[in-house]
Design brief:
There is one protein chain. The chain has helices at residues 11-40, 58-74, and strands at 46-48, 55-57. The protein has a single domain (8-74), classed as Fructose-1,6-Bisphosphatase, subunit A, domain 1 (Fructose-1,6-Bisphosphatase, Chain A, domain 1), CATH 3.30.540.10. The protein is mostly helical and 78 residues long. The chain has a two-stranded antiparallel sheet. Helix 1 packs antiparallel against helix 2 (58-74). It contains 2 helices and 2 strands; from the N terminus they run H-E-E-H. The two termini are 18 Å apart.
Length: 78
């Protein structure tokens, strides 16, 4: 891609960028699915976030960190 300015990208260049984003997100989601399936068999540890109605598991936190890490590694300027 000759120009990094999104406003100057052609339709095919924009499509290629969007496809890369999609493929990256899809790979992260699939990896998260593996983590979640493995954790499904294990005992859950549930934590409170902001209130008793706002619960989170260690698996939730692990998956969130993993997805954010993958995205930051691939797109550090985003």
């Amino acid at each position: 891609m000759a120009d990094s300015n999104p406003a100057k990208k052609t339709r095919s260049e924009t499509d290629a960028v969007l496809d890369d984003y999609f493929q990256t997100a899809l790979a992260a989601a699939r990896e998260a699915g593996v983590v979640i399936r493995e954790a499904y068999k294990l005992e859950k540890r549930v934590l409170l976030k902001s209130s008793a109605a706002d619960l989170v598991t260690e698996t939730d936190q692990r998956v969130e960190k993993m997805i954010i890490s993958r995205l930051k590694d691939k797109y550090p300027s985003h």
